[in-house]
Amino acid sequence: MESKWSGLVLIISVCLGSFQAGASPLHECGERPEDWCRDVATAAKCGALELCRLTAWDRALGKGIPCHLCQVAVSVVGKILQDNRTEEKLRLFLDKRCQYLPFQDWSVKCKRMVDTGILVLVQLGKQVLSDPKVVCGTFKLCQPRDRPTGTLKYQQPPPGPSQDFADLIAPFMANVPLLLHPQDLPHGEAQETEEVCGDCLQLVTAVQQQLGTNTAFTWALVGHAKWVCETLTPDLAQRVRQPAGKGP
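The structure assignment produced for this chain is given below.
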């Protein structure tokens, strides 16, 4: 008996949906019923939300009410992301925050990163509007039977000198140690530090290339390391002399 009532409700819903779609002047509402339910926005325009919920979304995506509400919310968020006014407000807000960075070059790099992030958000908004079910599937509110969870596909923007996020973030992160060390060293101390770093780099390179050949050569490298340590400043020499004396 229950199945008969379900079938009757389905037939009535199809008839009502067909009447509403036929009476609608929108072009997409004159297409097949499958096209009405391609997204929440189209179904709402055609007056077929209930029809799509009964015939398509509930059957294909499981529990209908949370999924349906999620798609409505995601569609609204997608439209907000697509709004040029939202983009401008977000850009102004982030650009102001970039001005608080301590260095001028950091501020410039930060603003470039903001431009890249805005492009990603706009692209994400387009994808959200094109298929809200995928986003809700990612949140596990809409789960297709043939695929347990939805998956968002993030496409990288076209490569360019001002749009490569990796290239922008690399120099930014490289300058982080500047916050941990004095910025303006005396000329003599700065030159001494640079020379010490050069000696250490040469030593590390030599060890990486030659270590492991044989034990005798390893001990020779240890002796060379001790000699290099003698050329360092006293505090650095004391730190590296003990590990070097342990040998292999």
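Interim note for the steering committee: Confidence is low (pLDDT under 50) at residues 1-25, 145-170, 172-182. The CA atoms of residues 136 and 171 lie 37 Å apart.
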